[in-house]
Amino acid sequence: MATVTSTTVVTIPRLPAITAGGGRCSVELSTLPRRRVSTTAFSTSFRQISESPRRSSSFQIKASSSEETSVDAGELFEDLKGKWDAVENKSTVILYGGGAIVAIWVSSILVGAINSVPLLPKIMELVGLGYTGWFVYRYLLFKSSRKELATDIESLKKKIAGTE
Fold first, then answer.
1. Residue 147 pLDDT grade (very low, low, confident, very high; cuts 50, 70, 90)
2. Of the spans 34-43, 96-105, 110-119, which averages the highest pLDDT?
3. CB–CB of 61/8 below 8 Å?
């Protein structure tokens, strides 16, 4: 199992002095006084941050991967090619795929048009909130209704997979 560790140091740049002149009003944002930092002080403080277990936990990102989960691109393409070759009616699949892309495009245009009408987005948010409340009450609040929802989902998965 390989482990990758990375340490990130976040620095915030100083604001430059800005003078907004316009005749009557002048506003000045001053900068913070400059600190003299030597390279040895920086490397020492960086080493302290990276070696300190308490401080470095908020700055470390650990990622691990195993050889079992790695995906080979050639193997993936061979698998997809095998599945594509197994499809009998390729024109129907292409037609459905194109139709799905067009449907997503049209729905995006429709949502943009609805969003541009005043008050309509807020009404749609209320409708969505109401439906979410109803769904939680109907399917998630009680144990028997959660079991019913799980049964419905399993039935739907079997229908889609074609095992039913």
1. very high
2. 96-105
3. yes
